[in-house]
Amino acid sequence: MGFLQSLIELDKELLLFLNSFHNGYWDNFFWMFTSKEVWIPLYLTIAYVLFKNHGLRGIVTLLAIGLLITLCDQISTNVFKEGFERLRPSRDEDLKYLVHLINGKRGGMYGFVSSHSTNAFGLAMFTSLIFRNKTFSIFMFTWAAINAYSRVYMGVHYPGDIIGGFLLGIILGRIVYGIYLRIFPRFVMVSHHNKRILKAGIAETFGSDYKTIYFTIIIMVGTLLTAAKVMLKITG
Q1: Global pTM?
Q2: How many distinct structural domains can be found in the chain?
Q3: Mean per-residue pLDDT of the chain
């Protein structure tokens, strides 16, 4: 057995192991957590913090985030998924009846890399570089990790898909941030324009408003945990 085949087999075994830990409560929780629409309040909070501190110039940052998400979506789907054509475990004939699915959702045909993972880690990377606060970064990367894990829990991605999405998201987040650093000084006054001071200058303009974002994450996760319990009582 070759090295690549050994990795594939390990990926399958790890998937079945992680996917085996499930119950009705966590099914409800991860079903909601993995929904992109659920996190609209978080995205609106990020937009609010940007506009509060930079006014209309915050549009530059939002456009950068929009570019990042577009790149994450398009590259993960059109380059990786369509290029590698690796079936999702929920579509693989050998696994699709072994994995635990939620509400019968199987996802699209191909799964490498995970777009959820790419988008989540791309956003976490980019915003962490902007706000440059340790606590904020911990919250954002934890949110991204749970988002990514939810795809394994739901049986629609291998752990390898998640790791691939993580790496792609981190790389794209850094690239877009590099572009952002070059464009941003044209719209926002900072004390120094050399690269090192510029990074700190952008971060300092937000003060402590980054706390609003991770408080939003705390409130939303708490809401989802409560909602999952209520749903379990209703359906149970």
Answers
A1: 0.90
A2: 1
A3: 89
Q: Please name which of 218, 213, 189 lies closest in space to residue 50, comparing C-alpha atoms.
A: 213
The pLDDT tens digits for 82-137 are: 999 999 999 999 888 999 999 889 989 999 999 999 999 999 999 999 888 888 89
Tell me, yes or no, whether 179 lies in a domain.
Answer: yes
184 domain residue, yes or no: yes
Q: Structural domain of residue 95, as residue ranges?
A: 53-211
pLDDT digits (tens, 9 = 90+) for 194-229: 455 555 556 666 777 888 998 999 999 999 999 999
* CATH code, domain carrying 147: 1.20.144.10
35 inside domain: no
